Automatic annotation (TrEMBL):
This is Glycerate kinase. GO terms for molecular function: glycerate kinase activity. Belongs to the glycerate kinase type-1 family. The keyword Methyltransferase does not apply. It comes from Dysgonomonas mossii DSM 22836.
Amino acid sequence: MKNPIFVLAPDSFKGSMTAKQVCDAMERGIKRVYPEAICTKIPMADGGEGTVQSLVDATGGKVYEERVTDPLGGIVFAKYGILGDGSTAVIEMASASGLYLIDKGSRNPLVTTTYGTGELVKACLNRGVTKIILGIGGSATNDGGAGFAQALGVRFLDKENKDLPFGGLALRELDKIDISSIDQRLQDIDIEVACDVSNPLCGENGASFVFAPQKGATAEMVSTLDDALLHYAEVIKNQLGRDVKDVPGAAAAGGLGAGLLTFTNARLQKGIDIIIDYTNLKAAIKKADVVFTGEGKIDFQTQYGKTPYGVAQLARAEGKKVIAIAGDAEKGAQELYASVFDFIIPIKPESVSLDESMKRGEEYVEQAIADFLTKHEL
């Protein structure tokens, strides 16, 4: 193939390479075999970790840092991005309210808060943005988004008219929601929420029962938190006229999905769909001969909203060949995804440890691409 056109649209390889670094390594491997090839590099993400960096890289934007409240009420320096258009912000809520910010022994969803995520939104409003992309994966919280709302002026009061403390447990004492001081700029902002969870807020499939155990909740805590969120949803419905209890996605990030639906004009969407839209990936794929995608590991979870799967579906719809690069691939992945990817290429040599492979990720991506293109006719 003379002067082939490649679209390079990988996710980051967590703990090893950003999506942009993967793109660059892919391009180097391609150029070793096809020096005149045209490579369109589109760093991708699925709304989780790496989303800020990927969209900033893809649009020529800028990353900023803000001092905000961490899940336990301390301080953390969290990052957010302003895209190249200057009017769209991108936030990963985990950077302010994420589980990774808390030591395993300190995890307690009874008291963790999304307040820092609200502070990040406020920082973006202060920069005059008109749109916010908010990824809400990886939370340490189960507070229904109450902390988020508190940071933006909402008051949650008990029967004695006292402000509730942070955390999901406190919602059991909720008597009144006062929105008189809510930041009015929220009404003029378009918030697109990258949310790949379809669970309702409460019940056996809700935020507390499904997700709180991984955040440190015991069985007793789970029941307590579920009761608190159910009460929270009832107060919202009775006082604000919004019924969020059974909305698909309301459970996301410990109920932050419900809080966003209550206090903002947010829309919940699949993360990969948002990223595809903002990067103009479809237009690039239409012009391509071959599409490369990838992530750190391709396994049975890849089909559930992960970047390579979304990219591949789009490429297949355009009749393009799709090749996935993976740090590692689960046994049977090629058979599982035979109708999705033409090839899955693991880059980790069998004789090399995972730690070593992660350190040398760019080298291995470049070599794997070059070896593949040398052996296969496109």
